[in-house]
Amino acid sequence: MTFSQIWDYGLRLLFIPNDTQVDLSLFWTVYVPFILVTVIASYLLGSINVSIIISKKFYGEDIREYGSGNAGMTNVMRTYGKKMAALTFAGDFLKAVIASLVGRLFLGFFGAYLAGFFCFVGHIFPCFYKFKGGKGIVTAAAMVLMTDWRIFLILVAVFVLIVALTKYISLGSVVALALYPFVLDRMWGVFGYGNKPRFVVIFAVGVMILGIWGHRKNIKRILDHTENKFTFKVKDKEVKPERREKTEKEDEND
């Protein structure tokens, strides 16, 4: 079994070769366990919300109680500055990359979509934080990158263009989310992939629906002309002295 075969089909090839007819016994003993492990591991990984961890560890606060109330990179930038926003971006992006790689290892191309989607779900509804998380844009972007870098570049270009013209990150996110299933559908044949599996469209539509639903308040504020516009002119907020002292003591005990 070559690396290319594992990348396309995953370790399930060890149990079910491509030319093997999958019966019910193989489905329940191989596919289902691999799917369950991928879904659970990816969801739990997605439930690790970096912005909440940063706000509590360095500032003794909960980011969900400040700014827009969203546990995501944009609110972290407005509340704590660019350095913490960069850490949030890196963490949210990396967890989706790891999830997609694990999914791909187990189930190949299908596993990458499956894992990326449930990591995205975990970010929005994290079990570790009473199911109140972020909107998942960075996590969704990482999922798209890990499944098709060309689709990723198209959507990033759309996002950047919308934000550059309007200064609304939320509007750029919503437009990119709305276009994702359609760009994927239209470009599938262009990229020479052949027949399009149904799961590809299902996951893409799921990301679009959940992502736009998460931005419903932003959409209302945009229509009311009350949405905050994005700017890089923000200052990094210093860690509170009392929190810094507590953090240092905690570090000594680790």
What would a concise description of this structure say?
With 254 residues, this protein is mainly alpha-helical. The chain has eleven helices and no strands. The chain has one domain (3-253).
General description of the model:
α5 packs across α6, α5 crosses α9 and α8 packs antiparallel against α9. The protein has 11 helices and no strands. Helix content is 71%, strand content 0%. The protein is globular, with a radius of gyration of 20 Å. The longest helix is centred in the middle third of the chain and has 43 residues. The C terminus is likely disordered. With 254 residues, it is mostly helical. It has one domain.
Please give the structural blueprint:
Layout: H1 3-9, H2 24-46, H3 50-59, H4 73-80, H5 82-124, H6 137-147, H7 149-166, H8 169-190, H9 198-214, H10 216-223, H11 241-253
Helix pairs in contact: 1-5, 2-5, 4-5, 5-6, 5-9, 6-7, 7-8, 8-9
Features:
single chain, mainly alpha, 254 residues
> What's the overall average pLDDT, rounded?
83
Low-confidence stretches: 240-254
Determine the structural class based on helices, strands and strand pairing. Answer: mainly alpha
Largest sheet entry: none
Oligomer: single chain
Q: Count helical runs.
A: 11
Tell me the radius of gyration: 20 Å
Domains (count): 1
| SS strand fraction | under 5%
Distance between the termini: 43 Å
Which bin fits the share of residues in helices? Answer: over 70%
Molecular shape = globular
The SSE string, one letter per element, is HHHHHHHHHHH
Question: Tally of extended strands?
Answer: 0
